[in-house]
């Protein structure tokens, strides 16, 4: 069981979008140059991020993608969910009601969740909560000045005055 | 991303093995009857549990499978790992060292883990720790008396004196 490979670059792409400026659209070509990714591949995933409401597609010659909301309101969990892992890691098929227990199905179900299911869901909650606690803003704060400068250079965007301070 | 379906029945099977008695081998046919599972399917997965050292295969006419160690020393995480999800959910490909950053690779790597990777690993740790905290013994303690009786009936094993107390 492994998360889709797109999670890594999608998280990085969101960090870049935040570093260059939340309100400044960046073309998928510009974004692709930062980490030398295929623009086609990148675009496919940017569409998923857009569908999940994490980025907004801005039309026009100087258009592209920008964050759809504040970088402190986008978590790593949002990224994981946008790329298709929103659903449960474990799906209980209620095997406790099968075979020797089939005739007791309604009584068993009335007792609530199976202990195994409960434990699996609890573990998954711990995973998702941990991912929810990390925002794109927090991740971007770890990007050093030299890396920021390169991100501006390669995307062709200029640092804003605020960014220069 | 979803865990293999076998996780559910493997966890249940280990609970049954503990309920009927850690030291009493149960045939895969007997075990299959409890939840009306296919003995072939069950056997394939019992082999994986055996390979992971969670159950021991006992040869002979009254042979079968029994727990390889105490039920309090087998966790839900052991089950998940035995069925193939021991590896990381997230594998960092170091895309931070690609493209515009390719010439800085050694300096970047020297700074330690990428923040995104660190956060993903931390979340995964939270998931695995939670699974590790739940033992087969703890799960079995939630099995009621009526269900225990049925497990003995359908497996053809008699409760031990200790079990009757
Ligand atoms: S019945 Fe599904 S986890 Fe127990
Ligand atoms: S470089 Fe792999 S997660 Fe950042």
Written account of the structure:
2 copies of one chain form a homodimer. Chain A has helices spanning 6-20, 28-35, 39-51, 76-85, 105-110, 115-132, 136-140, 145-155, 161-164, and strands at residues 55-58, 64-67. Chain A is mostly helical and 165 residues long. Chain A has a two-stranded antiparallel sheet. In chain A, a hairpin with a 5-residue loop joins strand 1 (55-58) and strand 2. Chain A is elongated and about 70 Å long. The complex binds FE2/S2 (inorganic) cluster (FES) (2 copies). The site of one FE2/S2 (inorganic) cluster (FES) has 8 residues of chain A, from helix 6. One FE2/S2 (inorganic) cluster (FES) is lined by residues 92-96, 114, 116-117 of chain A.
List strands and helices in order, with pairings.
2 copies of one chain form a homodimer.
Chain A: H1 6-20, H2 28-35, H3 39-51, E1 55-58, E2 64-67, H4 76-85, H5 105-110, H6 115-132, H7 136-140, H8 145-155, H9 161-164
Antiparallel strand pairs in A: 1-2
One FE2/S2 (inorganic) cluster is lined by residues 92-96, 114, 116-117 of chain B.
What's the story with the biggest beta sheet of chain A?
2 strands, antiparallel
At the fold tier of CATH, the topology name of chain A is Arc Repressor Mutant, subunit A
The strands making up the biggest β-sheet of chain A line up spatially as: 1-2
Bound ligands: FE2/S2 (inorganic) cluster
Q: Percent of residues of chain A in helical segments?
A: 40-55%
Rg of chain A? 21 Å
Shape of chain A: elongated
| Biggest interface | A-B, 58 and 58 residues
Overall structural class of chain A, as computed from helix and strand content, comes to mainly alpha
Can you say what the CATH homologous superfamily of chain A is? Winged helix-like DNA-binding domain superfamily/Winged helix DNA-binding domain
Q: Helical element count of chain A?
A: 9
Number of discrete domains of chain A: 1
What kind of assembly state do the chains in view correspond to? Answer: homodimer
**Average predicted local confidence, pLDDT of chain A:** 91
- Number of DSSP E strands of chain A: 2
First-residue to last-residue Cα separation of chain A: 45 Å
What is the ordering of alpha helices and beta strands of chain A?
A: HHHEEHHHHHH
Strand content of chain A: under 5%
The poorly predicted ranges of chain A are none
Overall CATH class of chain A: Mainly Alpha
- What is the CATH architecture descriptor of chain A? Orthogonal Bundle
């Amino acid at each position: 069981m492994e998360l889709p490979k797109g999670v890594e670059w999608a998280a990085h792409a969101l960090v870049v979008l935040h570093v260059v400026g939340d309100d400044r659209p960046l073309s998928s070509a510009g974004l692709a140059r930062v980490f030398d990714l295929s623009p086609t591949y990148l675009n496919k995933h940017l569409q998923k991020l857009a569908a999940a409401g994490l980025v907004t597609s801005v039309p026009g010659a100087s258009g592209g993608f920008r964050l759809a909301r504040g970088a402190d309101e986008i978590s790593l969990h949002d990224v994981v969910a946008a790329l298709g892992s929103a659903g449960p890691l474990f799906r209980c098929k209620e095997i406790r009601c099968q075979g020797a227990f089939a005739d007791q199905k309604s009584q068993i179900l009335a007792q609530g969740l199976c202990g195994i299911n409960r434990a699996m869901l609890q573990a998954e909650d711990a995973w998702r909560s941990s991912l929810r606690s990390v925002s794109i803003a927090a991740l971007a704060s770890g990007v050093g000045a030299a890396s920021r400068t390169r991100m501006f250079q390669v995307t062709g965007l200029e640092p804003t005055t605020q960014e220069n301070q």
